[in-house]
């Protein structure tokens, strides 16, 4: 393990499978414990590595190999963006450093500035100006983002999400085990 700045990072080697070319990736060690996103990626890599036969590929593999290579429409972009933002908030440290707090707040402002949908970007800029990111902890950031997302849902006439379940939805998985 090597220490770079305020965060301890480890180097994880990707499989040498032609697409990655043996490139190295850096992962924050804090994200590796109890990380469903990390586990899903590891499972996918293991399946790809062990699948030497002509068996039917997993749905994740099919999705990745057969995805539509067209630009995202506004709905697809929104779903992808909210998924990324909620996942980042759910995995944000519970006791972040001042630098981490500044960086995550800056990330939200940058996304709001450069978001490809101009109307959405303008609304997001206004929303985060009126309701700045709460970066004191991962829980507070997740709750802030859920409230912000519900504000957008209300504008669009969509149902509200129960913010008490935000960590269950974006980090731990549903209690019924359907995400395991």
Automatic annotation (TrEMBL):
User: Which protein, by its recorded name, is this?
Assistant: Sulfhydryl oxidase
In terms of one coarse class, where is the protein primarily found?
mitochondrion
Q: Where in the cell is it found?
A: Mitochondrion intermembrane space
**Reactions listed under catalytic activity:** 2 R'C(R)SH + O2 = R'C(R)S-S(R)CR' + H2O2
Q: What GO cellular component entries does it have?
A: mitochondrial intermembrane space
User: What InterPro entries does UniProt report for this protein, alphabetically?
Assistant: ALR/ERV (IPR039799), ERV/ALR_sulphydryl_oxid_sf (IPR036774), ERV/ALR_sulphydryl_oxidase (IPR017905)
Required co-factor?
FAD
Keyword annotations: Disulfide bond, FAD, Flavoprotein, Mitochondrion, Oxidoreductase
Concerning Pfam families, the annotation shows:
Evr1_Alr
EC class, as a word, reads oxidoreductase
Ranges where the ERV/ALR sulfhydryl oxidase domain occurs: 70-170
The organism encoding this protein is: Nezara viridula (Southern green stink bug)
- List its EC numbers: 1.8.3.2
**Listed GO molecular functions?**
flavin adenine dinucleotide binding; flavin-dependent sulfhydryl oxidase activity
């Amino acid at each position: 393990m090597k220490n770079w700045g305020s965060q301890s990072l480890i180097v994880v080697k990707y499989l040498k499978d032609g697409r990655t070319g043996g490139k190295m990736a850096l992962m924050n060690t804090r994200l590796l414990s109890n990380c469903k996103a990390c586990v899903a990626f590891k499972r996918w890599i293991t399946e790809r590595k062990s699948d030497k036969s002509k068996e039917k590929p997993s749905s994740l593999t099919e999705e990745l190999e057969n995805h539509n290579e067209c630009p995202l429409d506004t709905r697809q972009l929104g779903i992808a963006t909210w998924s990324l933002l909620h996942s980042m908030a759910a995995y944000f440290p519970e006791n972040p450093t001042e630098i981490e707090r500044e960086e995550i707040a800056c990330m939200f402002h940058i996304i709001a500035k450069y978001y490809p949908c101009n109307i959405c970007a303008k609304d997001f800029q206004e929303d985060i100006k009126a309701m700045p990111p709460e970066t004191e902890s991962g829980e507070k950031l997740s709750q802030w983002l859920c409230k912000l997302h519900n504000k957008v849902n209300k504008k669009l006439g969509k149902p509200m999400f129960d913010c008490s379940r935000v960590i269950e939805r974006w980090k731990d998985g549903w209690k019924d085990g359907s995400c395991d």
